[in-house]
Amino acid sequence: MSTTKPSAPALAPTHADPEVLDVLVQSTYQSIKDAILGNRLRPGHKLIHQALAESLGVSRTPVRESLERLYQEGYVTRIANRGYFVAEIDVQEVRELYQTREALEIYALQLVFRGGISSASVLELHAINTRYKALCMENLSRERLMVDREFHLALAALSGNQSLRKILGGIFDRLILKRRVEGFHDLRGIEPYEDHVRILAALGTNDEQAAVGLLRSHIGGACARFIHYLEPGAEPVTTSISP
């Protein structure tokens, strides 16, 4: 398990000025969150107040307030008599997040077809997918998951609805950053890349029904595979789904 510490905030407390404390809490919160998002504090890692305070050069007060905020946002869990831990994901949360992801992505795709898509935008998506193809030839990694995220968010952004894209980005963050990649055996090769190719082909021929069906299947398969991975003693499966 990673022992890398979050980067220290730029400001250290010198007095009890409420405004200084507010800035310090925000800085401490961001430092811990960045460490979680950067996978330096990994799922299941115990967050010890004193150790965090010392590594960040702050008192325990901003650490305590930051951890409570991260708990409210779902980035950490709190267990009675044990403390705080970097959150891991469970089956129910996977289902809910993928249901929400599917609803948002399908709606965004429908908006794309209503507004039209330029050849330049399609080329940009192909470029992202080419990078993704290379990563699909390797073991599953967080980099691969992030490039897949980039592809889907770039597609959603073509809807022109930036609020939708922002919410969708948060869902991807929860799905990617709260999961372990160790022990996740992916035997699909370049099939996820080919899923993207088929979606782009449907965009190119202006076939909304095919594109929506392909995207829905792609996301549904991803959900099924993730849930399978979370089941105790699960064996690798080879169905064609995205990470």
CATH class of the largest domain: Mainly Alpha
Strand percent estimate? under 5%
Q: How many DSSP H or I helices?
A: 9
CATH architecture level-2 label of the largest domain: Up-down Bundle
Largest sheet: 3 strands, antiparallel
Strand order of the largest sheet: 1-3-2
Number of discrete domains = 2
Could you state the order of secondary-structure elements as H and E? HEHHEEHHHHHH
Number of strands: 3
What do these coordinates show?
The protein has 243 residues and is mostly helical. The chain folds into two domains: 18-86, Arc Repressor Mutant, subunit A, CATH 1.10.10; 91-230, GntR ligand-binding domain-like (Four Helix Bundle (Hemerythrin (Met), subunit A)). It has helices at residues 18-37, 49-56, 60-73, 91-115, 119-136, 142-157, 162-177, 191-204, 208-230; strands at 46-47, 76-79, 83-86. Strands 1-3-2 form a three-stranded antiparallel beta sheet. Helix 4 runs parallel beside helix 6 and helix 4 (91-115) runs antiparallel to helix 7. The longest helix is centred in the middle third of the chain and has 25 residues, at 91-115. 29% of the residues are buried.
Summarize the model shown.
The protein is mainly alpha-helical and 243 residues long. It has nine helices and three strands.
Key descriptive features of the protein:
243 residues, mainly alpha, Arc Repressor Mutant, subunit A, Four Helix Bundle (Hemerythrin (Met), subunit A), 2 domains, three-stranded antiparallel β-sheet, 9 helices, 63% helix, elongated, disordered C terminus
Secondary structure elements and pairings:
Layout: H1 18-37, E1 46-47, H2 49-56, H3 60-73, E2 76-79, E3 83-86, H4 91-115, H5 119-136, H6 142-157, H7 162-177, H8 191-204, H9 208-230
Antiparallel strand pairs: 1-3, 2-3
Helix pairs in contact: 1-3, 2-3, 4-6, 4-7, 4-9, 5-6, 5-8, 6-7, 8-9
